[in-house]
Amino acid sequence: MGLALVPQGRRIFKNLSVLENLQLPTSGLAKSKVLRRTEQNIDREWTTEKVLDEFPQLRDRLNNGGNELSGGEQQMLAIGRALVANPELVLMDEPSEGLSPRFVLHVGEIMKRMRSLGHAILLVEQNLAMALSVADHVHIITSGRFVFSGTPEELKSNPDVLDEHLGVSSAKALDA
């Protein structure tokens, strides 16, 4: 259907190897939509090899089971598995959860690269600074209703929303 999910908590298959996890989205059972190779999208096609270039730590762990990976490596695998599906839209639920600050920056850079390659991302994220660094548009939902909708810049210039709904006292805190 052109969608891929990076679920909260990673949800990799721990009994499968890294390579097997990466092969799942390209298996005959999983393929519902094949990315047609054209000059316009050939650069955005993610292969197992491109994912391993993006996450070289995984290349060293190809035969390891998912249960033998660190939290950061599991997140790399969850993102890589989604990318190999070559989706038009990637749903990402808390991709920075439990990661080191350094790897949070890496995840942000990956999302920026995904966007530049034409992937749309629907991101649910509590790391506000990282989310705003990759977002084109922001929605804040409180008690099931939208309380803000706008650009990251509009949110940063709205101290009432920042304080009341996000517990952030100033836009300067978002740039940290």
Which geometry do the CA atoms define?
elongated
DSSP summary: helix tally: 8
Give helix and strand order, one letter per element, not per position: EHHHHEHEHEEHH
Largest sheet: 3 strands, parallel
Return the CATH class of the largest domain: Alpha Beta
Helix content: 25-40%
Percentage of residues in DSSP E strands: 5-15%
The CATH architecture classification of the largest domain is 3-Layer(aba) Sandwich
Report the uncertain regions: 32-40
The number of E-state strands comes to 5
Structural class: alpha/beta
Provide an overview of this structure.
The protein is of the alpha/beta class and 176 residues long. The protein folds into two domains: 3-130, 3-Layer(aba) Sandwich (Rossmann fold); 137-176, no CATH class. It has eight helices and five strands; from the N terminus they run βααααβαβαββαα. The chain has helices at residues 18-23, 48-54, 56-59, 71-84, 101-116, 128-134, 152-156, 159-166, and strands spanning 3-6, 89-93, 120-124, 138-142, 145-150. The strands form two sheets. A three-stranded parallel sheet has the order 1-2-3, covered by helices on one side. It has a two-stranded antiparallel ribbon with strand order 4-5. Helix 5 (101-116) links the parallel strand 2 and strand 3 (120-124). The radius of gyration is 17 Å and the shape is elongated. The relative contact order is 0.13.
